[in-house]
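Subject — a protein and its fold
Encoding — discrete vocabulary of local shapes:
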Amino acid sequence: MKIRTLRVSGAYYEFGAAIGSHFSERIHAAYDSYALLRDMRVYHATEAGRARYEALLALHEAEYPQYLQELRGMAAGAGRDLIDVFLLNMRGEYRGYLQERDEIRGCSDCSILTDEMALIGHNEDGAPAFREHLYFVQAQVLDRPGFTACCYPGFLPGNAFGFNDAGICYSVDNLIPRDIRVGLGRQFLARSLLEAQSLDDAIARVTRPGRASGFSYTIGSVSERRIIQVEAMPQESQVTEIRGLNFHANHALEVRQRAQTVTPSSACRVARAEALISARTVTNAADILAILGDEADSEYPIYRTATGPDLNETYCTALFDLDAPSLIVYSGHPLREPGALSVFPM
């Protein structure tokens, strides 16, 4: 799989319109095949669904007008109804109001910070329907830090992995809290990370009050040579300084608020990673990639192939090296296909 890259600059609306126009085919193909959007449209047609939409739209117009401009531009560029674009960018905030599906996505992170290494590894996982539709954007939006991000079609940049010119890099893991409410959408919070100037700024952006759902973030700062893990649930967040080796999947491990869904895949990936970590000493980047590429669990492996009961697959594996500094993205298995990569200087 070759992930295409678009370089673009401008104000928020123009930036979104350029993405929408350039990747319109991918946006339409992904949206039209996505069963969740059909479910959201059915709910949106009800009185309760319309009221929820209007409340969320008004809230984000007040709190993140610049990113709504981005979405309006994206919708116009792709020739798509804004309702579709906004709904899907709020998909995590509609969980619990729709019929549950077995396509819940999830990613894995394995990071390490020692005197010798400062690495963040990440498997970007999801439903096979999205695999061929991912793209990278390298962007300069107004006077904000320029950034590079892996993007899903028709979604705000930021909900996968990326970095900016201020030396902030990060990856995102899905969390599944049960107490979803009307509040700030995690896609918008994640988008704001691409404008963070420091780790403290990044923490403030993703832990601000009024969150509606949940994400986990592994965030690094090149200039500070630090890596942190942030679990941001609706009512509580936890910030953990990484020293040594850390693995995270798709359920909160640190926050006290544990009203969440723990999928079999997430539980098995964490358990397998813990076994691997206890059995070996990580000495280089290849060891991190070996953990992220592990397929020993035939039902719920860390490196996922949408076989057996696990309906998701690993699209690509990203490796941030804070000391190089660089981002390497493996579009195939990171050990079996080491040549299938893209390299981005940070």
